[in-house]
Amino acid sequence: MKISRHATIRSQQRGIPKDYIDIIVRYGTPVRRQGDTLEYRLHRKDRERIIRHLKQLIQSIDKCNNKAVLVDSKLEEIVSVYNLL
């Protein structure tokens, strides 16, 4: 998402890095505001949901060790999956 010049200046003034902005927009709860805008907020329940999801993702990543996915050269179809020796 494009960031306006105003938002860039304000984020620098307020010490809010781009990484934080990305997290809030990606995982936060949108609230309708005036002027056809949405305000994203990261509530405690959002934070807990993200942490649960990331813990599950870490467990899945651990289980993917020594496994492979074979894909055609055009990246259109998964041809096979297998365990590596």
Provide structural commentary:
The mean pLDDT is 95. 46% of the residues lie in helices and 25% in strands. The protein has one domain (5-83). The longest helix has 20 residues, at 44-63. It has three helices and four strands. The strands form two sheets. Strands 1-2 form a two-stranded antiparallel sheet. Strands 3-4 form a two-stranded antiparallel sheet. It is elongated. It is of the alpha+beta class. The chain has helices at residues 5-13, 18-27, 44-63; strands spanning 29-33, 37-41, 67-71, 78-83.
Topology record:
Layout: H1 5-13, H2 18-27, E1 29-33, E2 37-41, H3 44-63, E3 67-71, E4 78-83
Antiparallel strand pairs: 1-2, 3-4
Summarize the structure.
By secondary structure, the chain is an alpha+beta fold.
Largest sheet: 2 strands, antiparallel
**Over the alpha carbons, how many angstroms does the gyration radius reach?**
20 Å
The run of helices and strands is HHEEHEE
| Secondary structure category | alpha+beta
Order of neighbouring strands in the sheet with most strands: 1-2
Anisotropy-based shape: elongated
| End-to-end distance | 42 Å
Helix content class: 40-55%
Number of strands: 4
Structural domain count: 1
Q: Keyphrases for this structure?
A:
two-stranded antiparallel ribbon; alpha+beta; two-stranded antiparallel sheet
